[in-house]
Amino acid sequence: MKRSARVRILLFLLISGVVGIFAFIASVFTLLFGVQEFYTPFIIAVALGFLFFVFNSFFPFLKGKMLRRTLLGFVIVAVLSVVVHEVISAYDRGIPTISNGDVDLFEYQPFVEDTKAVKLDEPATFKMEGQLLIIDGATALYPIYAAFAQATYPEKGYDVYASEVMSNRTQVAYDTLINGEVDMIFAAAPSKAQINRAKIRGVELKLTPIGKEAFVFFANSRNEVSDLTLNQIKDIYSGKITNWKDVGGANDSIRAFQRPADSGSQTALENLMGDTPIMEAPSDDIVSLMGGIIEETADYKNYKNAIGYTFRFFSNEMVQNNAIRHLAIEGVPPTEETIKSGDYPITSEFYVVTAGSQNTNIDPFIKWILSEQGQSIIEKTGYVPIVGSSENSEETE
Known about the structure:
Elements: H1 2-32, H2 36-58, H3 64-93, E1 97-98, E2 135-137, H4 142-152, H5 169-178, E3 184-187, H6 192-200, E4 205-220, E5 227-228, H7 230-238, E6 255-256, H8 264-273, E7 283-288, E8 292-297, E9 300-301, E10 306-311, H9 312-319, E11 324-326, E12 328-329, H10 336-341, E13 347-354, H11 362-369, H12 372-381, E14 384-385, E15 394-396
Parallel strand pairs: 2-3, 5-12, 6-10
Antiparallel strand pairs: 1-9, 3-13, 4-10, 4-11, 4-13, 4-14, 4-15, 7-8
């Protein structure tokens, strides 16, 4: 009898090991497909439930109707869990997501038929000769500097992501500039981290303002709130205000989305918040085959209780999502008129940024950008031109 019990225990342990191996393999697959949040615990629960019934078969303590009912209940709960999860997931996937990936920059590519890039009515007073400037920059500013290139560069193909005129987003653009891989970039002001990286490399960033833009906050178009104060925004993004009812809306929690670190809009938020700490952002667990799970800031998901931020032109002209609404700040809506007048309270400059390149085209190109022709391209694109000249340039060390 004792030997029989030992054999059953050994068999149970052997089966447990096999089940554990299969559960581990299945869990790895959930990580690879990015569904680990639900399915990894589900697999563990199913494996433990299965072992429960295996153990019961070796050492019966549930029998007859009780065993059948328990087994049936286990199967029903498992199936219902998957069905409910998939229904909720399908609903969640149906909610629009807004990110830089929503924009087709090839629509603004220079020298292509039907490009959206603005064209001058007359030849440019400056033409790029000799070694072409290699430029990079923010997604939202690509329509501007693609139009600059169309007016001044030799006519040929310029791939959006790998050419003399490319757009690899603000974070990458600053890195390539600091590393000496490009001659200039078009972007918002650098973050503290980007300034520090430049210092470490012994690079001096020179910022020349060329235009102005509104930093805007937006919410679901069905949200009752249409206006926030600067203090309310700071309280929301510091975590002090967590419910829309506290700012005149419905009794619903606030889902305050953020952008990745070193992006132009995240730096704008940091500048707005000043010394007020920013709360932790909603995040996605993104699986990398090399590095396991990587936690990144989630793209804006347009839940009815969500709030996000970007720049006005990017939202109005490049994304054109009618499911969101820009919020007035201190009672002032973000428009070209309120930016020009200075009434909109969160207006910032955007820049040509250089870092010591010796290309002789840099100074004349910047001078042309600040000329009537260059500024007209900025205005016709949909931004607000800067008032002043190259004397507005500033340096960061």
